Amino acid sequence: xxxxxxxxxxxxxxxxxxxxxxxxxxxxxxxxxxxxxxxxxxxxxxxxxxxxxxxxxxxxxxxxxxxxxxxxxxxxxxxxxxxxxxxxxxxxxxxxxxxxxxxxxxxxxxxxxxxxxxxxxxxxxxxxxxxxxxxxxxxxxxxxxxxxxxxxxxxxxxxxxxxxxxxxxxxxxxxxxxxxxxxxxxxxxxxxxxxxxxxxxxxxxxxxxxxxxxxxxxxxxxxxxxxxxxxxxxxxxxxxxxxxxxxxxxxxxxxxxxxxxxxxxxxxxxxxxxxxxxxxxxxxxxxxxxxxxxxxxxxxxxxxxxxxxxxxxxxxxxxxxxxxxxxxxxxxxxxxxxxxxxxxxxxxxxxxxxxxxxxxxxxxxxxxxxxxxxxxxxxxxxxxxxxxx
Length: 389
Prior knowledge:
This protein is an alpha/beta fold and about 400 residues long. It is built from 9 helices and 20 strands. Helix 4 runs parallel beside helix 7 (about 330-345) and helix 5 packs parallel to helix 6. The protein is globular, with a radius of gyration of 22 Å. GO terms for molecular function: serine-type endopeptidase activity. This is Serine protease. Keywords: Hydrolase, Protease, Serine protease, Signal.
């Protein structure tokens, strides 16, 4: 019997390993010794335990277990542990954990600017209330957090969860500014919707892709736990590189399950096809225009832009005190404008992400213009400007 047992044990060891999976290198800065691992769809249920139990180097440990958007993990891996993980049969890919950040232009804290600030862009008083105010809809803002005490939220903002070891507060302001443009009184249109802070970025507006995926995973879990209650998630951040497979895969899985995503197109004045997660085709990717409906000089462009929206010199809520405001510019502001429109549209009944995205485009106006210097944008971009519907 002993030879039979040895052969069986050897077969188990061999089946757990395969040829090494190549390490996907990423452009730009990365979180040192941090990696994102995705398991194959048919991987055994104990794949994460197998991975954990095989780590032998000091400092190696699993940071996150992803359970909803895909089966995987983020881990700190040192020495031979990286090659160990690359050889596991259950692993689909291993990628470096890239840095991500918000991108925007900040003006003065008193709301002044070199040009007149647009405080009327999404003012609730501008819209016909018969169309609704987003009551019954939940918006998840995956960002720097939200200053819950700001008066514009009227008690409709709450803290969801923080990832990355940061404090449970918005010390940056970007998350608060964008949240108010969606649901804030005197700033957004969806003044009946609830908004939830999912903090994945630090007070400097930067973070790691692994933290963002954890935030998306958590948001997806909440969406499922609440019975697919009408919900929208916004994500106004990104990193360099044509594709960030884990983050893009996470968004696609959540969208496929019915969670609507609005994504900022990015502020590098480059094609969206080289920016992640702006290049997730299933999401609503938004570019920014100025007050003349011309493409903002900073806005990314290209085939992944679904619609454009106001994003230059936008006045909204800020951190520090309950009445603070700030003027900012960016595709983050434009994305928030669209999220507010979609939240109101969802009040009247659930639509699939594909259906709602089509309605957004069907109701948009083909009025966006481009400067003479934007030849590439002219050739590759839609001219649709988002409109309430």
